[in-house]
Amino acid sequence: MSLSSALVEAFSDIYTLRCSLIIIQAAALILKCSLLFAFSMRILRERRLPFSWIFLFIVIACSGLEDFSWICSLSRFAFWPAIDYRPILFIIRLTWASNILMYQSLALFLESFTQKVTKISHHQIFFICISSFFFLYPLGLSLWGFNMPSWRPPFEFTVYSFESVYALCLLMPITLIYVWVKLRTTPAQKILKSQLKLVITFQIVPHLIINAWNALPITINTVNEPLSLLSFCISNILLTAALFYSCKRVIGLRFLNIHKHVHESQKFNFTNDFKTILGSLGSSTSTNEVKLLTQRFFKQAFSVSTVSSSLTIRSSNANFHINHKSITPLNNFESKVEHFLRGSGVPILNYLKDHQILIYDEVEYDNFYESNKIRTTILHFLEKLQADIFLPIYEEHNIIGYITIERHARSNKLFNNIERDEMIVFASYLAKVINLLQNRNLNELLKQRKDIIEELYLKHQEINQYKESIRSFLSKNEQDIGIIFYKNRKFVFANQEARKLIGINPNMEPNHPYSKALKYIATQAFIYRTNKTQLVKDPIGRQIVLCGIPYLEHNDIIITVYYPNMYDTIQKQIDAIRDPSDWDYLLYLETTHSGKLINQLIPSNGQIFLNFKIDLLKLALSKKALLLELPEEDLNSTVEILHHVSLRETLYTLDIQAHVPNSDTAIKLFGINPLYGSSTDLPILEKLNKKGTLLIKNIHLLDLDAQNNLAQFIRYGFYTIFKSDKRVQSDVRIICATDRDLTVLIQEERFSQKLFNELRRASLSMPLLLTLPEKEMNELVDGFTQQALATIEFSALLSLSDREKDRIATQRPVSLHALKKRVKHLLIEKSKKNEVFHETQFDPAYNMANPKLIEAARLGKHALKDPQLVSMLWNKFKNQNKIALFLGVNRSSVHRRIKEYNII
After folding, report:
1. E-assigned strand segments in 449-555
2. pLDDT for 735 beyond 90
3. Residues 559, 566: Cα–Cα separation, whole Å
């Protein structure tokens, strides 16, 4: 039994074959429609229609019409045999007209995309005349004989046969021969040859062979045997697969400039090639070693032989921004490169910087379609070098070296987009290695080490803040959700959780802050018939959410009471921050101990002070040197928080009141060479090493030599002993403060430019209270009022009125400290007028800034039970009477605890 007979027997079901062929043709039609859509979107983005693309559209559209014709014909025979045959016959004849149009457009397309001119060749004009007959005949026949489906001219099939013979045996072979001869003389031949090879091999040749195999079928009516159907089925599978493969491969080769670079389908992953070179480059000690490693990397990663790749490192004075010649002699190759880099204009250098790499084939291909002066110059430069690749190595916008790959190093393979990105990444890392080799010194290494340590410390602090913030939410009992009904101006507790969270009876205590908040929520929800939410604080400072929900059926208001989640905490403030990415710091302000200290210092969530608090928290979590521009009265309290959050043990304040001519301040800071004297005390930077914070007040009064030494310490992490070359490392956080304009002092040469450059990287300025908006000023006053009152029972009675707030606004203090004193003074006066004055009404820690002292003051006599707090108080006051007065206890109690803890 022959193979054909076996296939016929296996696929004897004509119905099944027709259904299979319909599915295959539908898949081919969908693929071609997708291509048309992709090209259309590309045209819309580029806003241009290249000449070659017109023919390509016609080819794909005509091929899609042929698939549609097969689908319609087979569907009629398989599913709807009784349908009118006239539309089917019309489509078949129209397909024969489009068939010759497809071949003619394909011929014109192959010739047009291999040359820049849009002029049609003479032989194609001759072919167009012949093709016009084969196009107009079936087109006219389909229109004239639409209502005569049974009438067929006797020579119709003969015309179709000659059409197929003409297209397959005359038009396409001559076109392919012409294109190949033309391409041999085309400058940009490598990419175009690859494209043409793929198109001919995987699309045109299979199409011609399969059409010949199918014996040039004339009409769909002749497909009435299983073998013919099977032949069509197999051929269409092959054609669809070939179309998909060739489109994928050709488009990846920058087909008609669809992509900017040659594309590859594999993922970007060169870890296996790079990881071994990475460690070797990091430990390189010479430029020759780096050159050898570069050649090895290009051989492993890109299959480029070591003799075909080279790394050239420019000398430090060969930079193209400098006009004089290099001191070291240059060979002919290097001279060409230096001449190009120095002689090229700014547009070419900008082109080189933007593209980061020059690939000869791609520059040649771009210049072939869109020629301009820049590409032509670069192309001539690469031709002089005989290079496939020119990869500049940048360090701070300067070219410190370059990698070149010889022409035709990979003659049978193009460099794709993935390999291009790999080379750029490698060059970026290589720039750091070369820079270190050329400028390696202890200062730069120490600076990098210090920057890395500071960055790691900041990340560690941020992670701790995040963990603490998450723990604050997890520690709350999410099941404690209270429900309160508000009806007929009365509050009714619906469950025990509500009574537990509120803690009072709002019906019996209408002036209590909780009662006012509940009444406000209920009233607003009832009036506007929408949900209303408000945050209040319980007696121990935890926030509680009150959410009013209107219950329309019974005209009631349902109020839910619960501890806030993350969204509740930040939703009202997130719109006020300058940078939306700082929402995590906003969360830290509300939930962490560090954030609560800052909120205690500035109890306002207005836009200006909220952003200031976020900046303050960022600086507190880092260990960078800091310049503060704050009122004198607010300086200590701010520094106390910065010191406490940064987890330092000792805070030392160096208050410079005037210029000291004998360098006593410098000696106190850095120590002195024993040859010039001795000092009984250790230098401050040594004494505070790894544990302290140094606050330098009036930094502008420090002498210039000491300022430069301090700038060196801030930049590199080590200082120079006074009148010595000895350098000592230290880990002290520096905080500087001044009330002068340092830029003016720099112009007068009274302040160090180096120190200013280091300090301005992290500086903080307090918003002026004199220019603060009235709304934020009132919010700040309310915050200080709540802080001053020890309990909330008297808050309604002692809260400042609008008139009293206006009195503060008309004579605004300069500092937060002065504002706090002013608020407390008004509260004391008001309490005396209302005959409720007693010192226990006010928070004993109201005027304090040190977090430890605040904790001790609020604990009162109970602070004596904590040995650490007692030790801290003794180190602070050095007097038992002062400790007893501070805590409000007898001196004997303090003496007994100090003796018990062996503090003295």
Report:
1. 482-487, 490-493, 532-537, 543-551
2. yes
3. 20
At residue 213, the pLDDT reads 55
The Cα 120–Cα 125 span in angstroms is 7
DSSP H helix total and E strand total for the chain: 38, 16
Q: With 80 as the cut, is the pLDDT of residue 113 above it? A: no
C-beta contacts of 210-213 below 8 A and 24+ residues apart: 210/235, 210/238, 210/239, 211/164, 211/168, 212/168
Mean pLDDT, range 366-375, rounded to an integer: 77
Domains 271-440 and 482-562 belong to one CATH topology: yes
Range 13-257: architecture per CATH:
Up-down Bundle (1.20)
- Position 21 scores a pLDDT of 66
CATH architecture of 271-440: 2-Layer Sandwich (3.30)
- Phi and psi torsions of 110, nearest 5°: -60, -35
Structure tokens, 737: 């403060």
**Domain 482-562 belongs to what architecture?**
2-Layer Sandwich (3.30)
**Terminal Cα distance for the chain, rounded:** 114
The mean per-residue pLDDT over the stretch 351-374 comes to 80
Domain positions in the chain are 13-257, 271-440, 482-562, 626-765, 777-900
For every residue of 344-413, DSSP letters joined together read S-HHHHHHHHHH--EEHHHHHHHHHHS--HHHHHHHHHHHHHTEEEEEEEEETTEEEEEEEEETTTTTT-
Confidence at residue 880, expressed as pLDDT on a 0 to 100 scale: 81
Question: What pLDDT sits at residue 216?
Answer: 46
Q: Which CATH number fits domain 626-765: 1.20.140.10, 3.40.50.300, 3.30.565.10, 3.40.50.150?
A: 3.40.50.300
d(CA 277, CA 268): 18
Please, which residues bridge with residue 359 across strands? 389
Which of 132 and 263 is assigned the larger pLDDT?
A: 132
User: Per-residue pLDDT averaged across 7-19, rounded?
Assistant: 54
